[in-house]
Amino acid sequence: RPRLFSGMQPTSDSLHLGNYLGALVQWVAMQEQFDPIYCVVDLHSLTLDTDPKVLRQRTRVTAAQYLAGGIDPARSAVFVQSHVAGHSQLAWVLSCITGFGEAARMTQFKDKSARHGQDGANVGLFTYPILMAADILLYDAAKVPVGEDQRQHLELTRNLAQRFNSRFGQTFVVPEPYIVKATAKITDLQEPTAKMSKSAESQNGVIDMLADPKVVAKRIRSAVTDTEREIRFDEEAKPGIANLLRIYSALAGESIPELEERYAGKGYGDLKKDLAEVVVGVVEPFRARALALLDDPAELDRILADGADRARQLAEVKMARVYDRVGILAPQ
Ligand code: TYM
Q1: What is the pTM of this model?
Q2: Which residues' Cβ are closer than 6 Å to ligand 1?
Q3: Residue 312, class by beta-carbon neighbours within 10 Å (0-12 exposed, 13-18 middle, 19+ buried)?
Q4: Is 66 helix (H, G, I), strand (E, B) or coil?
Q5: What are the distances in angstroms from CA 1 to CA 37, 175, 195, 224, 317?
Q6: Positions in the chain short of pLDDT 50
């Protein structure tokens, strides 16, 4: 079975609905036909200035949510990035074949560093996509399920794999992004042209998967729409309604045309009320499962240790090969 790799940053106390629909749902569905490795990318989170205690807790919370969403540790290796040394080792090697300008063109870096200002941004933010490329190439992943915002990073990853292979001989699989269009960009409920994001200034437009169901329902009911009354999918003219339909369709397993038909002649209030129920119906059991897993941290840590063992075996073989290719003298 082809290898799959993906990861999320432990940058908040909860995943949001965008992470869930854009990534986690795909991860779960792909467990059947692929050989997946799902990583909590804690080293990436060091680019943000987080309290060490909080980061440690969020790392467990993120792993618990993978499992709560349906990742089965018997099928998928689930582990924490820093537990396998190869990620940082390969990132260094890849950074030495990455052009400065190439890295500087990454739009996420440009956005993030603009937010921090020239001196506030750290070098880690700049080299972040190279570490991400290392995550993927270390395991010969053929496919990488992600949301739309990661497309450019995947393009860089492919370029680095091809460049390394042509300079040093066939070493890496060139991975393909796996991006499901319908859910690749879930938008903010208050600002429906911007993606739903952990770093949004106001959290009112964000649905946290671990939030109190009452808060979830309220946020859906107060989603920004438009001044028309017609419920139809029109991304340009009606981004708010389009987003609600997208979420509804993905969670309820009904097509958007079916929903348009069902809500013909009905008001935005009806749509929001029903959608709130659908979302709560998913979030409530998800939250209960995650909390139960967090109640037994020893079991969670055992799953992560097992996942790290499986990942480490692959990573060590790959790293030895990479070092050999580039001319590192093996320790005798
Ligand atoms: P992160 O932690 O920001 O997001 C995790 C996943 O959620 C997707 N996503 C969304 N999908 C749809 N709509 C949204 N509003 C939305 N917001 C986030 C992201 O695309 C991602 O798939 N750099 C990555 C983490 C990473 C990684 C990797 C991913 C590090 N190494 C290797 C894949 C492979 C990131 O910051 O994702």
Answers
A1: 0.97
A2: 5-9, 18-19, 22-23, 41, 44, 132, 135-136, 144, 146-147, 149-150, 184-186, 195-196
A3: middle
A4: helix
A5: 12, 15, 33, 43, 19
A6: none
